Amino acid sequence: MPLLLVTIVVALLGIIIGTVIVKPFSKLNLKQLYLMGWGMNSRGAVELVIALLALNHGLITQEVFSALAAMAIITTLVLPFVLQREIKKDPAALG
Question: Domain residues for 30?
């Protein structure tokens, strides 16, 4: 369970921070970049394919694969709720 929690936190923070740090190079505001980060969190299919390949080639354990699979599913399922909440709070954020 701790591995799953760490994996989810790193996945969420990593993609959101990654989109926000491009602010100096983008015309988008921080709210738009934040929403873009959440949108990019829904990337489960790619993660599952890569994790399965790594598992099949002995690069990760079953425990790590399970954490990655659960993280991919959870981040994909959370996306619509977060976007709905954020857009209701600030409809103009979509530009």
Answer: 2-94
Residue 43 structure tokens:
């990337």
Helix (H, G, I), strand (E, B) or coil at 29: coil
Structural domains counted in the chain: 1
User: Which pLDDT tens digit goes with each residue over 50-75?
Assistant: 999 999 999 999 999 999 999 888 88
Residue 74 in contact with residue 1, Cβ under 8 Å?
no
Measured distance CA(47)–CA(70) in Å, rounded:
10
The answer to whether 47 touches 68, Cβ cutoff 8 Å, is yes
Quote the pLDDT of residue 91: 82
The pair of structure tokens assigned to 91 is 């409809």
